[in-house]
Specification:
By secondary structure, the chain is mainly α. The protein has one domain: Fumarate Reductase Cytochrome B subunit (Up-down Bundle), CATH 1.20.950. Helix content is 63%, strand content 3%. A two-stranded antiparallel sheet has the order 1-2. A hairpin with a 3-residue loop joins strand 1 and strand 2. The protein is elongated, with a radius of gyration of 19 Å.
């Protein structure tokens, strides 16, 4: 017996295919972006060509992530969101809602602060979006602002990493301890045929 294809839109019980694809695509891109940022910051100054190429990649991925996060947020706001499991304590619902909101703030704040950092760099290097066109920088060179945005960007990156670990731990807790469908309903359906 064949299963019906997953619904594109969310329901009150399940995440739809669009939400799942955006969730896992963002998760993969954000993990790669975090690792790339960490790697780039440790490169020696002598590797100028490699550093330039990796920074351009990091900026293109960052701007793409910003667009995908905004799309995901619009999708989430524009449709139903699956409800909480029965019996979930109110404090846990509030903590989950707050952590999801904070994840969105960080997923938007990271690319914005990164872009503001490079737009204020005294080096004045262009931001080439996937090598297709230059993205205009809204601010001019300013070493003080570059350092400030860089510090904020780095702190947001570490906060994001911590919050993602908390998010994963909560999903695993729901699956293994609470034995509810919180994790299962975000996984691709083919894992549970």
């Amino acid at each position: 017996m064949r299963r019906a294809p997953a619904a594109l839109r969310n329901s009150a019980e399940e995440w739809g295919a669009v939400a799942k694809v955006l969730h896992w695509l963002l998760a993969a891109l954000l993990a790669g972006q975090w690792g790339l940022g960490f790697y780039m910051s440790g490169l020696a100054e002598a590797d100028l060509v490699l550093r330039f190429e990796l920074y351009q990649l990091h900026k293109s991925v960052g701007l793409t992530l910003l667009l995908l996060v905004l799309l995901r947020l619009a999708w989430r706001v524009g449709g139903p969101v699956p409800g909480w499991p029965p019996g979930m304590p109110r404090w846990e619902r509030r903590a989950a809602s707050a952590s999801h909101a904070l994840l969105y703030v960080l997923m938007i704040g990271l690319p914005v602060t990164g872009f503001l950092m490079v737009s204020t760099s005294p080096l004045g290097l262009p931001t080439r979006f996937w090598g297709l066109f230059a993205v205009p920088h809204p601010l001019g060179p300013n070493a003080t602002l570059e350092r400030a945005f860089g510090n904020i960007h780095e702190k947001l990156g570490w906060a994001f990493a911590f919050l993602v670990l908390l998010h994963v731990a909560a999903a695993l807790k729901h699956h293994f301890r609470d034995r509810d469908r919180v994790l299962v309903r975000m996984l691709p359906a083919r894992f549970f045929r």
